[in-house]
Amino acid sequence: MSAAMSRKLRSRLSLIAFSAFILIFNLGPILWGILGSLRPREEIMRFPPQPLPSSLSLEHYAAIAESGFLGAARNSLIYAAITVVVALVAGSIAAYALDRLRFAGKAVVMFLVIAGIPLASGAAALIVPSYLYMTSLGLSDTPWVLPLVYIAYNLPTAVWVLKGALGGLSRELDEAAAIDGAGRLRTLFEILLPLCKPAIGAAALFCFVGAWNEFVAGSVLVDNPDLRPVQVSIYQNMGYFGRDWGPLLAAATLAILPIIAAFLVFGRLLIAGLTKGAVKG
Amino acid sequence: MAHISFENVSKSYSTLNVIRDINLDIHDGEMLILVGPSGCGKSTLLRMIAGLESVSSGAIRIDDRVVNDLDPRDRDIAMVFQSYALYPHKTVLENITFGLRMRRMAGDEILRRAKQASMALGLDAYLDRYPRQLSGGQRQRVAMGRALVREPKAFLFDEPLSNLDAQLRVQMRMEIRALQQKLGVTSVYVTHDQIEAMTMGDKIAVMNRGGIEQIGTPLDIYDRPANEFVATFIGSPMINLLDAEVRGDGRSAVTPGGLVLPTGTAALSPGEKVRIGIRPEHVRLGDDGAPGIVEAVEQTGLDTLVLVRTSGTAMRVLIRERRYMERGQKVLLSLPPADMHVFSSDTGARR
């Protein structure tokens, strides 16, 4: 074997080792959580830990199904779906206005949108004003409050991502559509947005994950157990007298699934856009 | 079909005047070419007809109706863009018929028109393809098709051939002209290519710095340029322009280097400073005339361009027949009085 070949082999092996380490580092806790959710209760905290459970059991899953987890998951799915749809529709219209129209105060609006992005990801900072505002509107503890708040939190990101994509599209497309007889909304929805699929995918992912994973507003703005979102429901397994690890792990495991599904659905848009060269005329 | 007119039309962005007081009539069925250097305002003027740019003052009329405040879609015009502006996610058929769909035309009529246009443009085999699957020339045809099916009052073309290779450009320029003449649709065509301007238009408007320098038939403009700018802009190779002073007889002028040039029929006063223009193909190499020395020779195969230095001035000479000449060769230049263009040194206007 020549020196060059062995060097190549060595660098390849170290790359594989490094990748494996990263993979284990990232997936390890998830795997531990999934296996934990399937272990009999007494095995979870046993020391020294056993790599594999002695027997697989669905008792924790049965427990969370009884405790209202599925209802909370359904609530969160509905909240997230509404957030995605409304944020995309309103966000694309706002992005269009900010990118294509000239109006007074445009720079200020854009500044506020950008300023809203970090505020939304640190939503705890907004919880007191949000609570007071929603209470004064008579909306707290209603089915509308969480979708409204989630839309407000995620809209700035959606606007920002979509504006970037619209900005990359030639204005001659708008002009051709205008001459063809299309109005602004028609131009946006039939000509421009189909060319922004990657951005739509990215914005939808942000909104879905943002709404699904939100905890603080979900725990403060609704009291009614029937309106509770999924993250709050997971937290229910942490009691005053310690953590009920089995149901906690089972709930956390199930809560990952919609995120994976969202990546499969919206991620496809991202990839489709990247490989298609869609904006090339 | 329509009659388009401009009445004292201006456009400015705050203090910058991009279009200055344009008065222009485009008759029914006519093809007008707007030509000029980059930034002269020709595209802006076209976009003002389309309704894509606002009018600061004056009136644009289509068929005697002032359209200044009319939306593009209500003007019943079609436009072919430089980038074609095809909708990338729509097939050729969908691209062509989008405008008809927006006008809520009946489905069978849409199909009939799409078929007709695609046959005329040789696109019938490509109706299911997407723009990215087409060559530049085919995309150009789709853009044409999109304009054709609408059967609009007027076609507007914004440098539609500038992205095509030279051969295709010649072919498309003939096709567009033939189609326009066959349909008899009023058309405005913007280009910076003077060959396109000369070959395609019924009339040419030469633009410079937001204004129109001259309007006329192509040959009119070539034979009698209204000023120095038009004379230099139209014609390739470029016209020879020489500073000179009118002599005592008022019928000839002399350059600082001592070259005597006839001034033809222009009424000039002795001592007047002028610039004399003579097109390269009008300078003759013959048995008598001003002596000169060949400085450079360019053979294109079709003709020969010779740069001759005479009395301290470099003069471009275009010879149609095949001539083999060498640098340093001595020649005699004759300058026919009838082909001289005399311009004022101060204003550049034709004398």
From TrEMBL, chain B:
Keywords from the UniProt entry: ATP-binding, Nucleotide-binding, Sugar transport, Transport
Pfam families the record matches: ABC_tran, TOBE_2
GO MF assignments: ATP binding
Entry-linked CDD domains: ABC_MalK_N
Entry superkingdom: Bacteria
Matches recorded under Gene3D superfamilies: 2.40.50.100, Nucleic acid-binding proteins, P-loop containing nucleotide triphosphate hydrolases
Annotated ABC transporter domain residues: 4-234
InterPro entries: AAA+_ATPase, ABC_transporter-like_ATP-bd, ABC_transporter-like_CS, ABC_transpr_MalK-like, ABC_transpr_MalK/UgpC-like, Mo/tungstate-bd_C_term_dom, NA-bd_OB-fold, P-loop_NTPase
PANTHER family according to UniProt: BLL2173 PROTEIN, MALTODEXTRIN IMPORT ATP-BINDING PROTEIN MSMX
Family as reported in the entry's similarity comment: Belongs to the ABC transporter superfamily.
Protein name from the UniProt record: Multiple sugar transport system ATP-binding protein
Organism of provenance: Pseudochelatococcus lubricantis
